[in-house]
Structure formats: structure tokens, C-alpha cells
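Explain this one:

_____
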Amino acid sequence: MIPSHEKLVAHLLQEGVLSPRWRRTFELVERHRFLPDQVTLPDGTSVDRAGAPEQWLGVAYDDTPLITRVDDGVEDCRGYPSGWAPMPSVVADMLRRLDLRPGMRVLEVGTGIGYNTALLSHLLGEEEVTTIEADPTVAEQARVNLIGTGFVPLVVTGDGAQGWPARAPFDRVISTAAVKRVPYHWIAQSQPGGRILTPWGTAFHNGVLADLEVGQRGTASGRFCGDAAFMWARGRRPLGQAVATFVSDEHEFRARRTGMEPNAPLAFDASFAIGLHMSTVINTIEFPESGDDQQFVVHLVDPDSGSWASWHVEPGSTSHEVRHYGPRNLFAEFEAAYQWWLDSGSPAIDRFGMTVSVDQQTVWLDEAANVISSMP
């Protein structure tokens, strides 16, 4: 291993996310061989392999996510990240949770650069791995990356939500794209007792893993875990320009004051719970572009109804202005959802679970009978 690769493996072991079963695989599969020549860091800094080869190799083995594609490859758009390489620690943690054993057959949804596919292929054998990528250009580059590193699993170009029945049944399904509704095809194409691990979220909160076990009667059930925000599956992305599209001071908004600070209700566990009650609502935080003004604005937007609320937070102040507009009073709903979470004992995400059947998806607290939200 090159020094930066060796350092990354040591870091993953120290963090406890790299299990002994996966250690040799992570040592032998080199992440930098799957990355494009130009990558972008989360802060927007781009690193070019030709211009800064040492820096490029360094970031390849940092434990950080890297943006690898923007706007699905369409030029002159707004710069929405549409492809990425997740943090290696997140990759290792998901594979550890998947509890793979020799002889298992795996369906991966979201091939991306092919790094995760190569890890699966090394551990299980490429004949046991089927991976699906929606973007034809990305799928072809993944094939090139995989062949270049000695792996030839089946790489399918298509809609991962449909699964791949030709290779079913699968023992494990792992998705690297976030979904709001777990596709039933994944369950139908899994062995009873199989596992499905996928990023899951609402428009309000994206950042948990659903770890489901497939039952004998065509359902899957399990709990939420982890803290990992993934990009949304294609066709399932929330509106990226929601604030610019819907929020305007020209609207005849109503105004009120609140003493609530955003730190607690927008923290991870609370935000997840609030999202269960406001699943279509997008929340974003807008900071001033320049100057010493530390005021920021929390926006809540419901594209379906055109309703919005803007929470103008002034640090150090005991009262903040809230403006709201539209048929839904989004800030009142937000307050009520947060109070529900407090009254329920401020449950962490691992107390929540999900059950998926052919016609319904329910999210529950502590036990399946205590349903918090459902969708067809």
C-alpha cells in the first residue's frame, strides 16, 4: 500500500468501522483507481490530478466524501452534485452492517465509481455481485474502472428500483442512493431471511440507514441506524431551488415572534423525528454571503402547496421573527412535531423502525404497532 492508503486503513480500524473480515479487502482494493481526474471536496474546492497529483492522491485517501459528477454531466447547469464517492468510513460501516458471508449473492443499487462494487467482488467473488447504475455514462466508466482493477461483475445500466430479477433471489441488497419509499422489488427479489440496507429519508431529513430483514410473507422490517447522508436516487431528489422558487418577501406573509432556537430541533435525532411528521417539507439554512452579520435564516418549504416559513435567527437574541405564507402554517407544524418528539422522551433514531409490504410503508416507534407515519 502507498502511505496514504495504509494510513486510511489504520484510521478505519481505529474508528471501529472496518471489521477483520473486510481488512484484507480494503488493503488490496485501491480507492484512487476509481476516482476521476478531477474531484471536488465538500467545501467546493476542486483538485485536479494533472495539476496537483500529490494533493489529488492525498484527498483520495482522506476519510471524506468527494463529488465526482455535477448535474448528471450536463454543462451550463446550476452545479447540483449528482455523483460522489462516499466517505471510506461510511463505506466500511455499511459493509460491516451487511454481515456478508461466502456464497451470498448481492444486489448493489448505485454503482457510482465502482469502488464499493470492487470491494464486494473481492470478498464474495465477482460472479456473486450484480450492480445497477441509472446513468449510462457513469455505468460505462464503472465498467472501465472495474476491469482496470481486475474485476468483472455484472454491471447493469437501468433503474435500480426495479432490481434485477434475472439474478434473483439475492441474500443481500445494498443501496448507495437514498430513497423515501423502499422499492418493493428489492423485497420480492430477496431470499426470506435476507437483508436490505439502504439510506432512507424524508425531504426534511436525509441521513439514516434502514436495516431491514426480509420475512417469510413478502414483507421486510427492521430499525434505523447510522448517520450518513447519501445523494437521492435519480428521480427522487427534492427540489434543489425550493427557496428561490417559492420564498419571496413580495408575498403577503404573516409574521410572529418565537423564542425557540434552532440548534436543538434541527439536531440529528429531533430533525429525523420532525421529518416523519413533515415528510414533504424541505428545510435549508441560509447564511449571509459576506460581512460580520451573524444572522441566518432557516427556511421551511412545501413545494406541493407552495407554503413556506422563514425563521430569522439572531444569535444572542431572545426572540426571532418568523414569516409564514400559504395554506399550511409550516412553523406551527414544526413546533408541534418537535414537541411530540420531546413528549415521547426525545427518542434516538435506533428506537424507530420500518415495515414495508407490497402496498404500504410504515415507520414506527419502539414496536410495529406504534405507527408514526405511513405511505402507500
Remarks:
- Residues 242-343 form a domain with the Double Stranded RNA Binding Domain fold (CATH 3.30.160).
- The chain has ten helices and 19 strands.
- The CA atoms of residues 52 and 81 lie 22 Å apart.
